[in-house]
Amino acid sequence: MLFDRPTDDILYDALVARDAGYDGFAYVCVTSTGIFCRFTCPARKPKRENCRFKESVAQCLEAGFRPCKRCRPMFRIGGGDPVVTKLLKCLDQDPHRRWRENDVLALGYDLSTVRRAFKRQFGMSFLEIARLRRIGQAAQALTQGEAVINAQIDAGFESGSGFRSAITQLFGAPPATLQGATLLKADWIETPIGPMMAIACDHALHLLEFADRPALPAEIARLKKRSGKGIVMGRTVVTEQITQELDRYFAGHDEGFTVRIGGHGTPFERQVWQELRSIPVGTTRSYSMMADAIGRGTAVRAVAHANGANQIAIVIPCHRVLGADGTLTGYGGGLWRKRWLIEHERRMAAGEAPRCAPATPDTAQPAYGEGAA
């Protein structure tokens, strides 16, 4: 662990310099690709706004990122232990496999030895790592337009109930153990640019994010801690409302969003989010314009941070904020979606017909400048 954690700017400079001194102490998670790397990875370095820095492999996996196939960060840290190396190779060969204790025993390993080795190296067991890899594969398949049943099979889940159970574990304890408690409910909402996860109570929407957002597991954990409520799969009247409003939005109807939003965030963040909601459909602003609009002209970086902390995508339209030169900047749902949403709203404001075909990273046509990841 890093006892005195350097700033992200220092970490990014070390990443660009391929500083080997950070190997094993820090990792970069790249939001545009969904992978995490060592600082010495030979791949082209990502843009600063696409980087999230973590102190352990466990944190990277829990945030939904996959290990890079070039620098192989998990093999690097576990390279000195043949048990770890062998099992990680098995996992890489078949990341969809649903590993059980009997599978480890069949390879001739002692369960307690394996558990201690992985806990020592990664802070989690081999079975926990395998589970996170499978869920990540499932989420990726869903966002690429796969049917739920296909994602379930590809992820190595034999039954629909087992697949749903694995996803449910991201949100909280099983419903039976939460009887009498106030719960938040999570469910999928299909959109032309991929499924979204909506978490709501009976009165307000608390989270709306694209299902492949790498930070989604961490955001769910933060929501649980902040609200003090369990989260289970299910729908509420608020879920139904936001589904209908999103349907109208994607159909090209500029009727706005009236769904009630939970009161999360700091007072400053809420001020920024309110200003975001005042940006008219079909227009964009820069971070400096946002800062000026709330009377905090020197707080451009704080405004950008608040923009990134938004957990209610589209409804709180952080996608309408561009860089000072008019180019696309970081977006948790992916820059291709940001580009698609801006173009969709431009057409909406101009009274043009909306796009009908589902968009993907390959089919979404550029409308604004975008550099390499």
Question: What does the secondary structure layout of this molecule look like, with pairings?
Answer:
Layout: H1 8-16, E1 27-30, E2 35-37, E3 51-54, H2 57-62, E4 66-67, H3 73-78, H4 82-93, H5 101-106, H6 111-122, H7 126-143, H8 148-154, H9 160-168, E5 183-189, E6 196-200, E7 205-210, H10 216-227, E8 230-233, H11 237-250, H12 267-277, E9 285-286, H13 287-293, H14 300-308, E10 321-322, H15 335-349
Parallel strand pairs: 2-4, 5-8, 9-10
Antiparallel strand pairs: 1-2, 1-3, 5-6, 6-7
Descriptive notes:
The chain has 373 residues and is α/β, with parallel strands linked by helices. 41% of the residues lie in helices and 10% in strands. It is built from 15 helices and 10 strands. It has helices at residues 8-16, 57-62, 73-78, 82-93, 101-106, 111-122, 126-143, 148-154, 160-168, 216-227, 237-250, 267-277, 287-293, 300-308, 335-349; strands spanning 27-30, 35-37, 51-54, 66-67, 183-189, 196-200, 205-210, 230-233, 285-286, 321-322. A 4-stranded mixed sheet has the order 3-1-2-4. The chain has a 4-stranded mixed sheet with strand order 7-6-5-8, sandwiched between helices. The protein has a two-stranded parallel sheet with strand order 9-10. A hairpin with a 6-residue loop joins strand 5 and strand 6 (196-200). The longest helix is centred in the middle third of the chain and has 18 residues, at 126-143. The chain is globular. It starts with 7 loop residues before the first helix and ends in a 24-residue tail after the last helix. The model is unreliable at 141-145, 173-180 and 365-373 (pLDDT under 50).
